[in-house]
Structure formats: C-alpha cells, structure tokens
Amino acid sequence: MGKKVVVTGGAGFIGSHLVDRLLAEGHFVTVLDDLSNGCFQNLSQHHNNGDCFVIPIDITDPDAIDTYFDGAEWVFHAAALADIVPSITHPLPYFNANVRGTASVLEVSRKYNVKRFIYASSSSCYGIAHEFPTPESAPIQPQYPYALTKYLGEQLVMHWGHVYKMPVVSLRMFNVYGPRARTSGTYGAVFGVFLAQKLAGKPFTIVGDGTQTRDFTYVTDVVDAFIKAAQSSVINEIFNVGSGNHYSVNHLVELLGGEKVFVPKRPGEPDCTFADTSKIQRVLGWKPKISFEEGVKKMLEQIDYWKDAPVWDQQSIQEATKEWFTYLHG
Fold it and tell me: Whole-model pTM?
C-alpha cells in the first residue's frame, strides 16, 4: 500500500530525485517548496501524475503548511537555503529558512503524529575535520552560517525526538552530485561550475592546487539512504551518508577532460571530506552503488542540463567570494 508522504524542498536537486523514487514505489507525494532553490522543471516528468502534488509555499509558516500533513506517514525535510557565500553576507534568511523552517515542519509533523521524520543534514557541520574517515562522533565546528544553520536544524530534530518521542533520523550528507544539481544562483558546488565551463569551452577553475579531496556521493545513492531510513524502525539516530571513498579535484578534472586554471585556496574549507559510513552500513544496511567514475560519466551524458548555467572565470569568482575571504580569513 502506498503511503502519504510529504517532501519539503521536493523541487530541488536531491528532493526531486527522492520524489522520483517515492512515486516509482507507489507512494502519494506532496511537495512543499518555495522554489527559492528548486524549480518546476525538476518535477516536469510528473506533470500528469495524479499521485504528485506540488505546492509552492513557505514552510516557515506552520499554519500555512498544516493541512498538507494531515494523514502523512513519512516526512522528508530537505528544504533549505544552500550555498556558502550568501550565508556569509546574509545570514538571517538562512536562519529563518533552515532553523525556523525546520521547527515549523517539526511542529506540524508532531501534530499529525507522522510515523517517520527524516532530516537532510550536512557534513559541513564537521567544519575542518581532523579524523578520516570522519565518524558521527567527530567534533562539530561549522565554519560559516549555512553549516551552522543546518546543524541547528539537526539539533531541533533530535530534540523533538527526545522530548516529544518523535521518530526522527538525521542524515549528514557529503558532497552530493548528480543530474539536476542547481545551475543558477551564486558561485557554489564544483560540478555545476565545471560542467558549465566545459560546455562553454572555458578552463576549469581549480581551487588551490586541486589536491584537496571530497567524498563525492551520487544522488541516487543518497536517495537510497533516505528510503532505508524511512523504512527502518530506527529512531533518534544520526548517520553519515558518503561514497566510502574520497577523490581529488584534479582527478575530477581528468575525468571531465579540459584545460585548467587555478584560483586561491579559500579559508574555512577542508582539505579533505571523507565519511565514516560504518554506522549506516551496520544499522540500516545501506551502502553506495555508483562508483565515482560511473557517476561522472552519467553527468557528462546529461551535460546539456547546464547549458544555461553561469560560466565562472577567475575574475568573477574573485568578486563573488571576496566576502568569504573577508570573514573567514582566520
């Protein structure tokens, strides 16, 4: 029997892939999204699907979203403002969306006694980690407001689980990539930057010397983790979601193929992100399926998605990240 499911941020990158999976498995999905990061295009394949309802709405208002949670069994809370730079220059909207918004969704979920509440958290809460692979018990040291607000949202989720006995799980995601990663907005994730540059025939702008590594995790593997968490009976737990390895930016450029230029290393960025996924493998039986090489190939096969994305160069990156250097110079 299909379940009634609410996905906040379901028109976004990860959220839309989650909606794909839920609908494919026969569930009835309500998407709540203010479209600040997401877009209808990400869900256009479900335009005529009577089991999918997309509601453009601000989740920070619990009275406005209340009616959509009546009868919901699963809630996936993926709505959030993303990107580092604007969180530094304008922190209050991030606090409103990522903290107040989470409290709003939690309270309405509590009112209707949802059976599972899954929160999309972020590995950025670890800041500059010193233990690799990084376990869930590693120190929390967010380096910029986006990371802080995602962690504060997670703290709300776990607190509601503790005080109100809500069945909550938080997934700390590492460097998710895949089709539908955002093409617009401020300077951000490396895949969106590089694919737009490749389409435009421009050199890849490599931060620092490119030896820094990231735990690049393919989006459908992340969706698998969300589904596993929802289907389980585990509550009040936090899990890392990563690929099981880490890869240098230089290796990514080799796989993409093209010329390269270098831009200054940014303060507050780790040299390595690498998740310890032993807990989620042990408790939920989850492990990733898509290799990095296979994932990059899939991205190149769908590269036209980035044809309208901004094309960054050394000068525009310098301008876009100047506040980053101003506030996070250490």
Answer: 0.97
